[in-house]
Every structure is written in C-alpha cells, then in structure tokens.
C-alpha cells in the first residue's frame, strides 16, 4: 500500500494531539455502519475489507509526512515523536466480503488505543464505503440481467484511478464476469475483456477494411463494433467478414452495439446474423447500461447475450454515496453514543446474528452485544485482526463472489427489487443491547441536558 | 506519477496491436470534449490538465506490465517489444485549467502517431472528466454561498483515495478556500482545516470537559462542535468555555453545527453567542451541504459564516459523471468522424475562439479549424506539449483559482443558475468547420451507407 497515513481529515490529527495532551490512551471501540438505505436499495454487499486491513497493518507516518505536519505549525514536537512510532495495534471484527448486511449493522468494529482507532476513520469509511456501494450496485445489474453476462466497462468515467481499480474488484464480487481495466486484471487476477472502439473503425479507409484488419490480428477473439456509421449496415458487413473468416476456419465471436434503440436493433441484427448463417455469433451491447436500462431493454424483447456496463454502475449514478459512519461506541470500558437528531448511534461492542428459515432463506438479523450468544443465529462479524496483525489471509475474489451469489440466492426476491424499496429486511436489537442503549441515553440526557 | 500505463481499457491495447500489425503509425488527432450538459448546468470549469500532461510525459510500460501482457496470451512478441520502447512523442493543445468551456468544445486535442494517441484515451477522460466535473460542482456551491467561505470536507465519501485528492484540488480551483484532506494539503500546498468530531466529545466524561481539553491543546484555533447531544445546550457550554478562555486572553474562534434545522438553529445559536458577548465568534455549518442546501438555508435566513461542504460536492451527487469523449478527428491527413446517433463528432483539428462584449462579458464562442484566425476572438486552446514534453510549467493553484474567478465574474448570471438550465451559452461552428463537417459526412454516407 502506498503512503496513505496522511489520507485523513485534519481533525483526526488535531483530536489525536489533544488526546495525547490529555494522556488518553485507553482502549476505544468504533463501529462502522450505514445509517440509511440509498434510494430503492434494501440490502448491501460487504466489500473493501481486504484493503482496509492492509491499510491498518501498514499504517505509519513517513519522515516526509512528519516534516509536513511539523511545518504546518499546528502540532507540538512530542506529539510528532509519538506519531513517528505509532502503529495500529488493535483488534478488528468484521463481516467478511461478499456477505449481505443491512442498515445499522456494524460491518467493521475496531478496538484499539483511542488515537489509533480514531485516526483510521477517514480511510476506512472511504474504502469500505465505495466498494460496498459498488458491489451492491453491480449486484442489482446482475440481478436485472438474469443469465446474461456483464463486464465492467466503467473505468474511463470512474471518479479517479483508485475508484477504477476498486470498481473492477467490487463489481466482480457483485457478480460481473470481468473488466476492461487492464491494471485491475493485473492487480487482482480478474478476467479482462475488450476489442475495438469507434476510432479503430474510423482510422481505416472503410468499415469493412477495419473489420478485416482486426480479424487478421485477433482471429480467435473477434467482436466487431458495428454502429460507427449505421448498425444494420455494420451488421451486414460483419456477416460478409464472417464468411471470409469461415474460409480460414475461424468463427466470428460476436458483434457489439453501442448506440440507438437497443431492443429494436438487437432483434434486427439477430435476424441479419441468422440469415447469414451466424447462429452462434453473440450480440454484445454497451452504452449507458445500468440495472434500469438492462431491465427496460430486456422487457422490450432485446435479444442480447452480454452487456458492457459502464459509467452508471461505476459511479453508482442513482445513489453515488452511502451514508456510512464510524462512531465511537465504547471508551475506557464505558458505552458511549451521540444523540444528534437522526444520527443517534448504538452504544457498545456488537455482534450481528443472522437467522434463516428451515429452507435456508434469510429470515431476520438481531444486533446484539458482542459477548451474547443467540441460539441458532449465525454470528456475522469475525475476528479478522489481532494486535494489529491480519488473522488469516483473505479469500480469493472468485470465492468471495461465490459467497455473495450463494447468500443472494437465499434473499427474498422482494428485497431485490431494483425499482423501489418494497419492504425492509427485519433487523432488531437484542433485549440486552436495547437495555444498554436506554441506560446510556438516559445517562447522557441526565448529565448533558439536565433532564431527570 | 505512479505506474499507470496499464490503467487503460483492454481494447486500447488490442487496437494498438492491430495498428501495429498494419504498420499504421501515421499521425492521428483526437479531441476530448463533453457531449451534453449534465442536469441544470450551463458551463464547465476546466480542470485536470496538469495531471494529464504529467501522465503523457511519463508514459512507459514497466517490465512487470509487459510480463503481465505477455502472460495474457493476447499479444505477439514484436508488439510487446514495440510497447517496451513506446513513449508519448506527440503534441497537445488544451484549454488551460480554470477557464470556462461549453458543450462540444474540445478541451484537449492530442496529435501523435496513432498508437500513442489512442492508448492514452482512458486515463485522459478519467482525470480531466473527474476534475472538470468537481471544479464545476464546487463553483456552483461557491456561487450559492455568496461571500461565505467553503471548505472541502468530502474525503471520507469521495469515490476512492485518488478522487479524494483530486476533489480537494478541483474544489479549490472552483473557489473553495481549502480542504480537510491532509495529504492534499501536503501534495498541493492547499490550506487545511479541521478541529473535532463527535467522537472527541463522547470520549470525555462530559461535553464541557471535551471543550476545555481541546481549548488547552489548540488555544488559537478553537471551533467547538456543539451538536453531539443538543445544539443549543452545546452553544451555552461553548459560551461558558469562551468566558474561561477570555480570562487567558484567548478568543473562541467558532462553533460548528452538524445536524438539525440549520436555519433555525444557526439563528438561535447566534443569539446565545451574542448574549454571551461573543460577537466575533463565527458559526460554521456542515452536514449534507451542497449548492441546493446552502441556498435553501440562506434563503431561510440561516446565520452562517462558513460551510464545510462534503459528500454531495465530493461525488457531484446530482450529476456524478460527465459525458466526456475522446474521438479520432483526423488520421493521416484526412478528417474523420463517427455518425452514430446522438454521438456524431466534429472532424478535424480545432480551435475555440471566445468573443466578449465591450465590457468584457462573455458573449459567444466559435469552434473553428485550428489554423483559422478569427478577428477579435481569443483562441482558448494553447499548445501545452511539444514532442512529448510539457511546454511550460503549470500555474499555481491560487493563480488558476483566480483565472476561474475572473472569468466566472464575466459570465452572465442566468448561466449560473443552480436550479435549472435556463438558456445555453452561444457556441457556433465557423463556416469553414461547418463545410468540412458536411463534406466529411457526405463522404461517409456515400462510401459506407451507399447513399448518393
């Protein structure tokens, strides 16, 4: 991991400096959770934990970082010396990547000396928030596409390069088959996809010459982009080239449509392909697809085998952020919370227990205190870090994808609706957590607001 | 710049391999432009060029990259040897950062041997698209806030770490005074801001103890967060602490509100501050602000001196992408374009000329051929790279911010409306460009579609 210790809001460091002045080094626990469902969502897919843990394990301020902080004039020398030696030494519980979770459930809980647990807030929210948002968005696209395959085409419009990488990874967790992002292919071992752009076609004397040239370079992997001038005339030319290829014993793998009325054009292109004897040539569609457009085009009878899904998935365009928060829930042995309107937090270290029906369907979750044991409930948060060290190596991405697919298949269909939230998955608090919560709220109201 | 040569769609490389097979090394020109205005926008602020040019200047494939491409089995050895030696040797014209531009105007034009010009597409769209989108969004927030100061608080919810950095930079270009992002402060020399979070308050025995402790650590820079339990009771405690500070000869700089009805609360907090003799203490507000919420709270009489603007600016929530494209416009001396519905491009190398009124107000732009000279029009695209080398060092960010502020002050107010697009800034094509465009379209229709 590159040097990201300073990828933090300044207030994390000013708070840390003040804690240092007060000698407040006692253990603190923070919960990472999502406060509200974004529009039309009823679940989240856990993603991003892997990178979060590497960040914690590698956390250190470089001499360069410390020089910069020194020059800012904000910090005293003894605090900077403390930062120089600071490492993350805490423990982390988390819901593994690929698992489903719901509003208010802690996805990560961090316990460490106060300063260590505090200063990692910004990065944890940033990385887990983005990847969870994208894995969730991707799962909606996959759900809308049914059995058709989806490829991540978003990287040119992701919000920066880091997002480009994380979107490739998280969309794969959410069920995509791969990405156009070569660097993500290299970094994560993801399958990579891609053939040609319009500029390829326009750089040749004619469209058919472009098709022929590409076929010569990549005979085994030809998907011709046919909409540069006119989709149907492009399809006719593709048939012509496919016939030439057949004489060399090579099949045309597919054609790509990238503009126009996709439902109508795909049906007409299919007719042209079949008339040309290309029964196995696949129709690949791209251009503005997300779960809504996939559903619309398929509802209209679009005859498409596979989709390139770009921008709108890659920025989660209909819900481009999640309301993820990282809140202190326990300090020095005492449960704590904040009372701010609509932003009240759940005190104490917690565990989420998941209950399923006899057929394995997801039935409900109970958020409990971490040391509770609820019969028949599966505890979702696992201990993933101890004394600042990752407890076990992460699963492979294909394994994580499988974990997601298995659990998603056991989620009720009405919770998967892409158009609106019809109902909420039942999540309740255990009696013990509820009672801790009431006691803590009463204490604050009494002590801070003078209520009796 | 880190190793981003593989931050590219796979098709850039498959196309390149095919160009290589065809020995197509002639010069190609590509235009980078935005096809449509996002909702309620009528202008864009140029941003991101600086990083784009560094990327081009440093472009090279590492041995590791080449190994990965080799192992993919997609590419022949002679192409990989070619990639090994590949550097960007082209020339670039661009609209400088901070300048305003409009739909269809080329913001960057790249001319280089075809492969070099092609494979940089993904990164150029990614970086210029994001920063332009954010500088534009930030400018809307600044416009809505009038004389009040804005600070970028978005980094925890930006889409990844790279976005966190670029949002800090681009929002500064759009008129923000600084950021909470410490790493961006270090990297770009931006002013950094921040004091305390709710967890700071909750980690103390009581709110007032937290206020006192912070005051001891940072006497010169105290902005107290007062909504952890109840905003008005927090304000009373802030007054109490301010009185204690006054005895040490120190002023309370401000209080921060982060939840609730901001218009009402800010007025009541102001009354409490003034009653407590704190006439100069500033009220800082954060929590879900963007141009729309800033306008609403100010319209309702909110008494706020400064805003922390976070998530919704940092992801440009109401318009989280721009429809930016990078299209081949000339190859081997011939103008080219694509005819795809609603995605037609403008052929040829171009220049944008800006015309102003006698009072300096922006009047209209003409997109012309690059070698045209239009009297009284200011040519916006400058030569920024020659033979792969940056022509001159970039301006400082404060200089770029000033360039933006000056030009924005000369843009008609009705083009700055944040609520809806009332009109479009006039952009027309020069007669010569129009004629080239018609000739090229006719040629393609004749040759590709058989029209006469």
Low-confidence stretches of chain A: none
Largest interface: A-B, 108 and 108 residues
Write down the overall mean pLDDT of chain A.
95
β-sheet strand percentage of chain A: 15-25%
Oligomer state equals homodimer
CATH class of the largest domain in chain A: Alpha Beta
Q: Quick one: overall form of chain A?
A: elongated
Between the first and last Cα atoms of chain A, what is the distance in angstroms? 51 Å
Find the count of extended strands of chain A (DSSP E, 2+ residues).
19
The number of helices of chain A is 16
The largest beta-sheet of chain A arranges its strands as 13-12-1-5-3-17-18
Helix content class of chain A = 40-55%
Estimated radius of gyration of chain A: 26 Å
Secondary structure class of chain A reads alpha/beta
Largest sheet of chain A: 7 strands, antiparallel
Count of separate structural domains of chain A: 2
Structure overview:
The structure is a homodimer of 452-residue chains. Chain A starts with 9 loop residues before the first helix and ends with a helix. In chain A, strand 10, helix 13 (291-299) and strand 11 form a beta-alpha-beta unit. Chain A contains 16 helices and 19 strands. In chain A, helix 3 (63-71) packs antiparallel against helix 4 (77-85), helix 6 (121-145) runs parallel beside helix 13 and helix 7 packs across helix 8 (182-188). In chain A, strands 13-12-1-5-3-17-18 form a seven-stranded antiparallel β-sheet. Chain A has two domains: 10-134 and 319-449, Alpha-Beta Barrel (nicotinate phosphoribosyltransferase); 135-314, Aldolase class I (TIM Barrel, Alpha-Beta Barrel). With 452 residues, the first copy, chain A, is of the alpha/beta class. In chain A, 40% of the residues lie in helices and 18% in strands. Chains A and B meet through helix 1, helix 3, helix 6, helix 7 and helix 8 of A and helix 1, helix 3, helix 6, helix 7 and helix 8 of B.
